[in-house]
Amino acid sequence: MRYRQIATVLIKYGFGELVYRMNLVSPLKPGAKKTKAVAQSTPVRVRLALEELGPTFVKLGQVLSTRPFLIPMNYIIELSKLQDQVEPMPWSLAVDILSGELGKPVEDCFSEIDPVPIASASLAQVHNATLMDGTPVVVKIQREGIKKVIDSDMRILYDIADLLYKNIPESRHYDPKGIVEELSYTTFKELNFLNEARNMEIFAENFKNEPVVKVPKIYWDYTTLKVLTMERIKGIKISRLEELKKAGFNTQLICKNGSRLILKMIFEDGFFHADPHPGNLFVCEGGVIAPVDYGMMGVLSDSQMDELADLVVTAMSRDAGAIVRILQNSGIVPDDVNTRALEQDINELIVKYYHMDLSRIEMKTALDEFITLVQRYKIRLQADFMLLGKALSTYEEVGRMLYPQFNFFAEIIPYVRKLTARKYKPGRFYKDILKILNELRWLLVESPREWRQIASKLRKGEMAFQLQHKGLETLIKELDSSSNRLSVSLLVAGLIVGSSMIMTVDKGYMIFDVPLLGLIGYLVAGVLSIYLVVSILRSGRL
Q1: pLDDT band for position 477 (50/70/90)?
Q2: Which residues have CB under 8 Å from 23's CB, separation 6+?
């Protein structure tokens, strides 16, 4: 039923050809009719279809929106608009979930809880509440049965990814299976509210000495896998500029505090808020910034931080060749890339911005140009780097909304210098030496043992080599399709000949003086002929 629903929605928004090529439904079965939405642009139709298909597909669109090396920028922009607001579940159901998760009646946990949610998304909804000691909190409640729905959708998405890979060869560049695997990993992490609570604790520890940043406190006694209870933030959303001004806030100070938050979490901690929607940032008394919703966090490892530092340093020294080598060493550049052309394009980008006044550089514009280069050479940037770029460009927009003279690049430079300097600290040298010694130990101790195992398997004939062909899948599919059509054609011809012979014999059951068996043969042959013609016409190959 769910497969049918997915196929119907896709046909409704004008993606019928995709449905038929994947063999989700037969081209002869009646499906949905196209709607007025088909008149919209393709990116808009993709967004509308994903929204109608529900939470799992909305999450799929959000994952794709951070993959500009896979899909064009107009799709990225449209998928970034995906709405995740749905009708709240009945309050009685929410109460059952709360009491079941917390192990006691709701009235024994909260002196007051508002049955009307302040936010309602596809995975959860949020309510204002008050603890028994009078502490104001917010309670995030996971939707009933949402895990079962997502489990089912994930299985279907894995099947669809497999169908895309097998039936639509041009989709393989987009790595549909890899995208679904990442979607599954991130979505099930979000479904575990304990992960979000731990993210908040890590974030709070990182900013414990920063008075300009406030992280909501977690109340662990009222937090479980499906319920998250945290301190209620008293503040104004950073996107509500007029309210901030009326409340007497200094927007320039807010901008400065916000830039401190962003740059520290990225360039010092390597642990950053990866859902940079302005609605997730509140301004409290004194211009203090309070981020909320820690379900999606970006994490940069030490090696990724080093790569980031190396890229910035080489860019500042105008060494395009070194940038290409760094990208190649990280394994994200295709083997068949034209490195000379890539180096030339990177050099042009560096020269363009090298002598430009920092106040004239826009982060979003620079990132868009870099993404265009990434798409041209099919460079597969790591997911966390893409989240980082998206976060930086969004925060720059928020900063300039608060303070039009905000110069993000000027704020970044001191942090980049610190990031570069950390590579040369004595403690870092000590770690690098230990790493080299461990690798040397493996080479001297473990490597001979592995070579002995290989030699032993070769002697016993236990080692086999697997050869994998490339580029023959399409040919095999075409041959299979041709043989099927030929078989149907022979069957039709046989039915027609056999039925014609039966027509000459006046025996058996008769209808209007015509042998019934011969008539049935003609009808079956006619249906098969129509099916064969329709399938050939739909394939576009006569």
Answers
A1: low
A2: 163, 167
Task: DSSP for 58-121, please give it.
Answer: HHHHHHHTT-TTTS-HHHHHHHTT-----PPPPHHHHHHHHHHHHSS-GGGTEEEE-SS-SEE-
Query: pTM for the complete prediction?
Result: 0.71
Q: Which of these is catalytic: 153, 275, 293, 345?
A: 275
| Cα dist from 518 to 351, 500, 507, whole Å | 80, 7, 11
CB atoms near residue 366 (< 10 Å):
19
User: Does the annotation mark 384 as catalytic?
Assistant: no
Note the pLDDT tens digit of each residue in 50-75. Answer: 988 988 888 888 778 767 666 777 88
Q: How many helices (H) and strands (E) does the chain have?
A: 21, 12
Helix or strand run (H / E) with residue 309: helix 302-316
The 3-state DSSP class for residue 212 equals: coil
Does residue 495 register a pLDDT over 80?
yes
CA distance linking residue 187 with residue 499, whole number of Å: 58
Asked if 249 and 283 count as a contact pair (C-beta separation under 8 A), the reply is yes
> Which H or E element spans position 272?
strand 271-273
Residue 315: closest CA among 266, 369, 268, 273: 369
Residue-wise pLDDT tens digits, 235-260: 999 988 899 999 999 999 999 898 88
Rounded CA-CA distance 121/17 in Å is 32
Element at 138 (helix H, strand E) = strand 136-142
> Cβ atoms within 10 A of the Cβ of 117, count?
20
- Integer Cα distance of 415 and 194 in angstroms: 32
* Model confidence pLDDT, tens digit, residues 188-197: 888 999 999 9
What is d(CA 424, CA 422) in angstroms, rounded to the nearest whole number?
Answer: 5
Are the C-beta atoms of 122 and 55 separated by less than 8 Å? Answer: yes
Beta carbons of 130 and 110 less than 8 angstroms apart: yes
